[in-house]
Specification:
Layout (H helix, E strand, L loop, with lengths): L3 E4 L19 E4 L2 E3 L5 E3 L4 H10 L3 E7 L2 H10 L8 E5 L4 H14 L9 E5 L5 H8 L3 E4 L8 H11 L1
Parallel strand pairs: 1-5, 1-7, 5-6, 7-8
Antiparallel strand pairs: 2-3, 3-4
């Protein structure tokens, strides 16, 4: 049974490839579109909010592991009003997702919450990250966005299928 879903950010939750480029002030022309002071734009993918809301409703913990500058991630999540969905956000200026996920698990453990690898689902748009996740952290379930699934709501159905 999945108890924790960990999301990548860029090209997984939104269409931009690197929010570390974004400069304040931010402007939201629409609820799911963010524009920075230089005119760069990101758009949340369809059903991201709905998926996060459904995970919360099901009492699944939600985390983020992203290769971005931490202060940029924090500001973008806050501007899009997504920050409240995430129990833990680990944003680092290096690409090693297995280290970020280990940090996420450590933060949960510090608050008394522990997860076995089979209770964790990691969603990223780059399959290249999965090998080290499995090597160092065990058989965490991994989904490659846009290959294994094409809509965020499919995460909910994968969750429901893992419950049976």
């Amino acid at each position: 049974m999945i108890k924790l879903v960990i999301f990548d950010a860029d090209k997984t939750l939104w269409d931009h490839y690197n929010i570390s480029e974004f400069e304040e002030p931010f402007h939201l022309p629409e609820r799911d579109i963010l524009r920075d002071s230089e005119g760069r734009t990101l758009k949340l993918f369809p059903n991201v909010r709905k998926t996060l809301e459904e995970l919360k409703r099901k009492d699944v913990k939600i985390a983020m592991a992203t290769w971005n500058f931490p202060h940029k991630t924090e500001k973008v999540l806050k501007a899009l009003e997504l920050d409240s969905y995430f129990d833990v956000v680990v944003s680092r200026d290096f690409p090693f997702k297995f280290i970020m996920i280990a940090e996420i698990l450590r933060k949960f453990a510090e608050s008394g919450i522990r997860f076995r690898p089979e209770e964790i689902l990691f969603v990223d748009d780059r399959r290249a990250h999965f090998g080290n996740v499995w090597l160092y952290l065990g058989r965490i379930q991994c989904l490659e966005m846009w290959k294994d699934i094409n809509d965020h709501l499919e995460i909910i159905s994968k969750l429901e299928n893992s419950q049976t």
